[in-house]
Amino acid sequence: MSAHGNILVADDDAAIRTVLNQALSRVGHQVRVTSNAATLWRWVTAGEGDLVITDVVMPDENAFDLLPRIRKARPDLPVIVMSAQNTFMTAIRASEAGAYEYLPKPFDLTELLSIVGRALAEPRSRPVEKKAPETPESMPLVGRSPAMQDIYRMLARMMQTDLTVMIGGESGTGKELVARALHEFGKRRNGPFVAINMAAIPRDLIESELFGHEKGAFTGAQQRSSGRFEQAEGGTLFLDEIGDMPMEAQTRLLRVLQQGEYTTVGGRTPIKTDVRIVAATNKDLRALINQGLFREDLFYRLNVVPLRLPPLRERTEDIPDLVRHFFAQAEREGLPAKRISKGGFDAMMRYPWPGNVRELENLVRRLAALYPQEEISEEIILNELYGSAPAAKSQAEEGTGSDLPLGQAVERYLQRYFRGFGAGLPPPGLYHRVLAEVEYPLILAALAATQGNQIRAAELLGLNRNTLRKKIRELGVDIYRATRPSGSIGSLQTE
């Protein structure tokens, strides 16, 4: 049972104040509500309240300006920040200002009550506020969808830690952007960010690239060369496409992660290392482990904080924001201003985006450069996406698979997937990759339908409860997301 407390609520929206008052009072909390920051500040300085819930934007003051004063006056007072702005920078600013938790609007009341209970039950020892980095309100990550809100909140929690992060996701979802955001807004921002793509380096040179080599270590090594670990000292090392790392290099990387030191190729003296590791892959590492192609112990060393980036087809509501962002970038580079018609956006929302955000960015840049008209029509979008406009219309009317039986939709997807390799074949392990792709959304949907009840979800799926728990753990299914029923009466939003 959560501890009861005296809760101060500040929000300019009367409907939200009323609902929060009723919901919090119903579970035994004492609640005081206000519509302005001045009253909230008066209550805080008078020593009232065990917890604060506040919106960011209020008539008389922004919560991000008020938070540092609250943190100074009452460092043990937890503050939950709400916002309808729902951007990456909002989540980061909330974290850096010392907020206990950030909740994007609309939010679920069950989730809010859980956070309130956790905050009141924790020991009253809060960290000192952190100085925000002096960076403009830029958007390293774009999107306001629920899927991206989960990513933003996870990143905000990770910024002030050195935990190793494993970023998973299809090609083109923005894994390096996330890695850079972790670095540029984290405590290692003053150190270097060094990226290395394992798939782009010959196998026999990977160890030299990572750890450096001594003069004469191998044929052609005419002088000492520093490796990426040395170059990233004090900063972040981003290991992209980690699934392509050869087994011998995996063994050496594991030793570095375990011991915190390495030796150069041809060297004998151990070198201490101080870097944060962020890894990324578009492969199913568990399938590679089963095939003997990836070390299981290295996987667990790297997978401390797993972060799955959703493909664009799972966050199509972000497409308008992304398009405007890429058009603005193109305009800053000297290309003419453009906009997309409503029909054009509708066509984009129906398209499956196999190349994800990277494919969308390339399309937007092509539209900005090649078409003279200021407004891009639906016909142009269809022609660009599908080839000829008549064929495109036919495909759009037919649907991209959402109206098809599951078997046919999967068959069409696999046909497109194989065509993407031309005369070649996909990498080995396709069977396990496909099963994992289907299992994840299936289990997530079952948990969402049962509101996170694992016993009912196991019964629905026809699985043993222990089997379901194992799959949740292995696949990294986000139970936290699944327990938030969409469209619930607890969903609130302000304009």
From TrEMBL:
GO terms for biological process: regulation of DNA-templated transcription; regulation of nitrogen utilization. PROSITE patterns: RESPONSE_REGULATORY (PS50110), SIGMA54_INTERACT_1 (PS00675), SIGMA54_INTERACT_2 (PS00676), SIGMA54_INTERACT_3 (PS00688), SIGMA54_INTERACT_4 (PS50045). The modification 4-aspartylphosphate is found at D55. Residues 124-134 have a biased composition (Basic and acidic residues). Residues 124-143 are annotated as: Disordered. Residues 6-120 form the Response regulatory domain. One of its GO terms (molecular function) is phosphorelay response regulator activity. Keywords: Activator, ATP-binding, Cytoplasm, DNA-binding, Nitrogen fixation, Nucleotide-binding, Phosphoprotein, Repressor, Transcription, Transcription regulation, Two-component regulatory system. PANTHER family: DNA-BINDING TRANSCRIPTIONAL REGULATOR NTRC, TRANSCRIPTIONAL REGULATORY PROTEIN. Member of the two-component regulatory system NtrB/NtrC, which controls expression of the nitrogen-regulated (ntr) genes in response to nitrogen limitation. Phosphorylated NtrC binds directly to DNA and stimulates the formation of open promoter-sigma54-RNA polymerase complexes. This is DNA-binding transcriptional regulator NtrC. It comes from Chelativorans petroleitrophicus. The lineage of its organism: Bacteria, Pseudomonadati, Pseudomonadota, Alphaproteobacteria, Hyphomicrobiales.
